[in-house]
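ARCHIVE RECORD
Type: protein–small molecule complex
Small molecule: adenosine-5'-diphosphate
Source of inputs: curated submission
Record status: active
Notes field left blank by submitter.
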Amino acid sequence: MSIRVKLYMSYLAMVFVPVILMIAFMLFYFYAGGIEDVREAFDKERKEPYLQALVYGELSYVLENDAGKLEDKEYLSDIQQRLGDLWAGYLFSKNGRITSVAPFLEQVAPGQNWQKLLEEPPATVAFSSYRFETYNIDFKYPDGSDGRGVLFRRNDTVPIYWRPVGTAFSLAFIGLTSLLLTYFVSRSIIKPIKKLEAAALQIKDGDLSRKVEATSRGEIGQLSIAFEEMRVRLKHSIDQSLQYEENRKMLLSHISHDLKTPISAIKGYVEGIMDGIANTDEKRTRYMETIYRKATDMDQLIDELFLFSKLDLQTVAFDLKVMDFSRYMEHFMDEQRFDLDKSGVTLHYTAHEVGSIFIAADPDKLSRVLTNILNNCVKYMGQQSPQEAKTIIVRVKELDQFALVEIEDTGPGIEKEDLPYIFDRFYRAEQSRNSETGGSGLGLAIVKQIIEGHGGMVWAENAEHGGARFCMKLPKSGAVKTVDEHEEHTDH
Ligand code: ADP
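STRUCTURE (tokenized, with ligand):
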């Protein structure tokens, strides 16, 4: 429930609940007091002044004109009875001595000093928690004796203490209701806020692990959801920056190691030449060739490093052109076939069967990708015995939204545990960490950067016969995302 609705409802409840409680309390009071039909009670109360007026009129006539009737016991008891029904009663006296006390008065105020009340009647008197007014009338009996009548009449249907008690109860009901409602409403608001506060404090202290769950669907629920999203993103970005930091350290240590190794080798060979260890022409030529090879490796490493860091910093512009991917691949493979033949590798290219597949791609970057993968295939197949057939199979397929290329070799394949990491920068599987294969460990990282920069995907698996298979999906021209869009996507 939203806070607004909660507040509206609690304000309404603050008005209605005390009223309902008061009515319930009054009904209880009535029933406890023996009144079964409340309407009847109200009706009686309404008619009371009228009936009283009738009896009083009759009595004042009797007192003035026919006071002897008061000595008629039957009449006296009848009139006292009628008065009693209307919460009133007379005190009569003859020559200062009480002759009759209304049974009703005896009932509501047993043991009263009636004589005193007769002599000095107060304006009002309280009997049984009710206030009674008094009226005294002096008259003459037919025999000439002095008579006095004091009328006690209830002047308020509500007992004396009931009004302040009733007010106190009303105030208590209002106070209690508002207290309880305020407590429950504020608890339902404050509790989730407290939870958020605790989570915010934890985040402030650097602990982003506590999940914030939305307990309601109102404003606070929405706030909790937004807060949780913020926490997840913050955690992700902190994890990411920690990862970047780790990568940066790894990168530096790898670069220094990879540059140091060939430089030490070059130094060693140059010293060998200078110290005359290479004392024959043949040895010198071999030394010089090794130095050249090491320098070339270093050059290649620096080139790859340079390209990789530019891709990583996203400072390389992709010159996207819509092109027929089948034709591009056919052309590229034709160019490669000669070099591959020279290395003793047979290339099988299976083109896409029908028509063209249009993609938007940067041809230079794409050729870099294919070269890196083909070079790897040649390199790792080179580790095998010369007798084994070396074949690279390239297939182009068309999927719904993508063009798919598969490049497969008949080399040793990739260890299962290495598969998830080979596209990481500087990752080299243990077997290839030797001088024979060389390589920077950046080749596949560059492939991944470029393919993802095109909005595509790249992954590796092992072919059924054991060789490595690299698969790349590039979006077809209609489905291509811009590089920026893709970056935005991957940033999140
Ligand atoms: P490297 O310079 O070490 O080749 P790459 O990034 O090009 O670095 O490749 C990463 C790792 O992936 C390599 O060290 C190697 O273990 C594995 N790899 C890549 N291509 C192949 C392949 N065709 N066959 C077997 N393993 C491969």
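CURATOR ANNOTATION: The mean pLDDT is 85.
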